[in-house]
Amino acid sequence: MNEAVVLTPERILDVTEDVLRRYGLAKATVVDVARALDVSHGSVYRHFPSKASLREAVAKRWLDRIDAPLRKIAEDSSGPAPARLDAWLRTLFAAKRSRVLDDPEMFQTYLTLAREACAAVKCHKDTMIDQIASILSDGVKQGVFAVDDVKATARAIFDATIRFHHPAHADEWKDVDLAARVDATLALLLRGLKAA
Fold first, then answer.
1. What is the CATH number of the domain that holds 143?
2. Are 68 and 40 found together in one domain?
3. How far is CA 91 from CA 25, 56, 189, in A?
4. Average pLDDT of each block of 10 consecutive residues along the chain (196 residues)?
5. Alpha-carbon gap, residue 145 to 138, rounded angstroms
6. What's the number of domains the chain is made of?
7. DSSP annotation of 177
8. pTM for the whole structure
């Protein structure tokens, strides 16, 4: 074992993802992660005090990767709000869909991890709703959206589009008419938000 290796939480999470991919969630252990890092499992526990905390960190990191491009769109208040909302929703849908289609085994692993990491998932959902609310607020300021309660409307938009981003609907994301359904839903939402 190479205890002289400088371990960082990021390095541990990188290797944990590789171990999960190789062994699967049910069989992967902290000892497997330590072995892949060529350190003792105690070294891993210095950064993550339990297997559950390591798994939660992996789930949070996965959710943060989905959030990063969404945050960029939400924070760029220079563009017209309708176009930003459309781009934000399409980016969310594409991110979730690509994870299912490109790496279905790892998606299932992350889905299970996300179910265990309830705090991280709730934070992720709240962050996404806040981002939608920010775009809606900009739209109200621009005079293009007629919205009385941006937070409630943001939550309604999130809920109304759930079929395109919630993992429970992942099997439907392979449908050939998905793009047309997304277009119709977003057109309806944007029309409903439009200021008179």
1. 1.10.357.10
2. no
3. 28, 24, 16
4. 73 92 87 93 93 87 90 93 98 91 78 77 92 97 96 98 91 92 97 91
5. 9
6. 2
7. T
8. 0.85
